[in-house]
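Extended Data, record Aminotransferase class I/II-fold pyridoxal phosphate-dependent enzyme
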Amino acid sequence: MSVLALDTPRFELALSENPFRPLRSVRRALERAAAEANRYPEFLPRRLPALIAARLGLDPAQVVVGAGATGVALQVLQAVARPGQRIVFASPTFDGYPILASMVGVEQAAVPLGPDGQQDLGAMASAVDDRTALAVVCRPHNPTGTVVEADALLDFLAAVPDRVVVVLDEAYVEFLAPELTVDALELVRRFPNLLVLRTFSKAYGLAALRIGFGFGSPGLIERVHRLQLPFGMGGLAEPAVRASFEAQSELAERVRAINTERDRMRGGLSALGIETPRSHANFLYLPASDRPVAALLAGAGVAAKTYPSGAVRIAVGDPIAGRAVLHALAPTRR
């Protein structure tokens, strides 16, 4: 997988970033906290997991934090998998999972997505064998933005052996409509081998601060805690998270704006004859076709995420960037 763009793209849409600055109240909190940047953060984070646990209604022993969701995912892999074991995930998926698996020496069982861009949970369950240590389900999925049905997820969790850790990657959960969310707290109570992964990088727009967290059963989280990096969470993380939790009305307004622009973009692409899966995240996935979509975007100064199949993923939310995408692809109208 690669990023195809000009050396200096006008629009950076390759990383599914939030196009907006951090929420105004969060920026103020960060400015105040930056005055203490001469001080070390906690040796091992205690206050931040407690803050997140209190927000979610969990015990602090059920929460682990890391350098973005990617950092937590690495801790999980290191904690539960050994070289020669296997990880099961859909393909394509978030680039981090194949990279982290290679770092840890874990073999990859990549299960192709269905033609509708959905993860095939039945095939993924069948791919779990005696050497499987970990399985990953993204909801919404990256890069298609599709959402597996709640019943299908339950069936998958019930089918996977207890010894296999399942990561439910909810990096984009804030973009989901309420009726599409699942009760993640109930799931971790029911399935002690489940770890739910979330981040402040996407909807909250704090990608540069690298704040991710996971939650699950105390026994599973204790295993992951053993790999917590000393001084691994920056001192801005706690005030940023506290302010983010207090800014839910600002967040809701921003999510509505991004979702509205996403749906407008999807309609605009459809008018050009480019059909995309129904996305529930802050990006759109343009499946491979005979059209030179990636080249047209690159030529217009739009940095897009490209895949070996020829598919392309673009971040959404900025109306100006959206118009640039539609203008670049207009020559492909049929």
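Summary. Residues 24-245 form a domain with the Aspartate Aminotransferase; domain 2 fold (CATH 3.40.640.10).
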